[in-house]
């Protein structure tokens, strides 16, 4: 069931779970899958911003070294 849910097949995961309230369990799976996806998305966005700042700092620092050498 966990493999089906992680793969995005929430309907099948709810079906094989054996839950008595299949519709409620499907809503629960949908909300948790959506929440996890948003968490990963925000984490990747923060990582991209940090990496952009690092690249900008490295590029900016390279120009100063060239100017000092001249």
Question: Could you characterize the architecture of this molecule?
Answer:
The longest helix is centred in the middle third of the chain and has 48 residues, at 22-69. The chain contains three helices and no strands. It is an all-alpha fold. Helix 2 packs across helix 3. The N and C termini lie far apart (65 Å).
What is the gyration radius calculated from CA atoms? 23 Å
Q: What is the ordering of alpha helices and beta strands?
A: HHH
Indicate the overall shape: rod-shaped
Could you name the ranges where pLDDT drops below 50 across 5 or more consecutive residues?
none
Largest sheet: none
Counting DSSP H or I runs of 4 or more residues, the number of helices is 3
The termini sit apart by: 65 Å
Structural class: mainly alpha
Helix percentage range:
over 70%
The average pLDDT is 85
Q: What's the total number of strands?
A: 0
Strand content: under 5%
Question: Summed up, what is this model?
Answer:
The chain is mainly α.
Any chance you could write out the topology, listing elements then pairs?
Elements: H1 2-6, H2 10-17, H3 22-69
Helix pairs in contact: 2-3
List keywords for this structure.
3 helices, mainly alpha, about 0% strand, about 70 residues
């Amino acid at each position: 069931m966990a493999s089906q849910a992680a793969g995005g097949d929430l309907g099948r995961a709810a079906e094989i779970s054996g839950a008595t309230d299949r519709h409620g369990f499907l809503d629960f799976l949908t909300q948790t899958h959506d929440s996890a996806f948003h968490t990963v998305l925000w984490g990747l966005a923060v990582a991209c911003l940090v990496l952009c700042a690092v690249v900008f700092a490295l590029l900016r620092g390279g120009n100063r070294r060239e100017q000092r050498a001249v």
